[in-house]
């Protein structure tokens, strides 16, 4: 019973924060979907492609959260987070250095990134112009965004899910308010339309960075330019672990981004209408994943902690109880999608053509929680165990499975209609989740001591 309380203590704040993440995407789409002067599908497509470009960049740096969280949780469990034995601050310092330098590099390379991206992204000229404009505004928040990954992993590793929750609520709240205010020109804010949505997001990211820097200093005594890694117990081993772990997690991110970017690129080939429908479907699926991720984060923190303590029984109990809560979330969302799928589409856009086209694909929303629940839950547990090779292998395999299914389906069908193509794309996405689930389930014993 005590373990369940710990899981809920860690999971609930993460879920509350995660709920605002799809809300941000939904608000951004809703704002541009109701702007006057341009076709709704084109504006939604611009947001979708623009967001995809950042996914292409930022998901490659997912190791900053995962690696930092796993190493910090194990250091916490081993007792290295107490005064005089601070083995956790050097982990965050390393991660922030990588984050800030990488963010500056992305700003310097922004024009090259856009040029390369549109060599492979096939969309209408109108969508391309909007997506490019969106990218060149949001990119200035890159150092802050990447640093937030590191801060979130560090806080979770310290068994503190409240601070990242407050950071996410702040960032997403500012994002929503500024996107609406700058988009429509509410009160003293100017009406910037599509540009206002991107600017609101950039300002919100820097707001979150300042908050995390202040909180980590005041609550945990962290100093960005404090003593270096020599104070970390086993510093040489920890340094090797940091870079080896993050190398594998970087490759894991490459596999994940290949699937999600491939999903958007392939759907964009079938016109702005199908692009808008697939973008909304993905946003709705993300709502489920963000709830499940709350329990995955709890599993990550507790798994790392018990491994640091050397408690195999604690790890096994964490796996059992985390899965019990995650399956409950899956059942809830199957009910939500089944009852309110059309209503959720209407929230996202007022374009009747997009809503009507989306009805045909709603059954896919019912299937995804069944196979997505174990995939997302195992992901958190393996991160806590710093089992980076298995995470890397599972994700690369699922990326191969996604594209293999898509191309095989096209060979069998020939030249699918836009509607058939999106069905095939959703099936390929289902296959990629299934591969992650079965591979990590087969490898589950690597997280037990």
Supply the key terms:
449 residues, mainly alpha, 16 helices, 82% helix
Question: In summary, what is this structure?
Answer:
With 449 residues, this protein is mainly α. 82% of the residues lie in helices and 0% in strands. It has one domain.
Overview of the molecule:
The chain has 449 residues and is mainly alpha-helical. The chain has one domain. Helices cover 82% and strands 0% of the residues. It has helices at 2-33, 40-58, 63-77, 89-108, 110-120, 125-138, 142-157, 162-184, 194-220, 235-268, 271-309, 312-348, 352-359, 362-384, 388-413, 418-442.
Query: Portion of residues in helices?
Result: over 70%
Give the biggest sheet: none
So what's the overall shape? globular
Q: Radius of gyration, rounded?
A: 21 Å
Q: Roughly what fraction of the amino acids lie in strands?
A: under 5%
Give the strand tally. Answer: 0
Structural class: mainly alpha
State the end-to-end distance. Answer: 23 Å
Residue runs with pLDDT of under 50 for 5 or more positions: 229-239
Q: What string, H for helix and E for strand, traces the elements in order? A: HHHHHHHHHHHHHHHH
Task: Count the DSSP helices.
Answer: 16
What topology does this entry show?
Elements: H1 2-33, H2 40-58, H3 63-77, H4 89-108, H5 110-120, H6 125-138, H7 142-157, H8 162-184, H9 194-220, H10 235-268, H11 271-309, H12 312-348, H13 352-359, H14 362-384, H15 388-413, H16 418-442
Helix pairs in contact: 1-2, 1-8, 1-11, 1-12, 2-6, 2-10, 2-11, 3-4, 3-7, 3-10, 3-11, 4-7, 5-6, 6-9, 7-9, 8-9, 10-11, 10-15, 10-16, 11-12, 11-13, 11-14, 12-13, 12-14, 14-16, 15-16
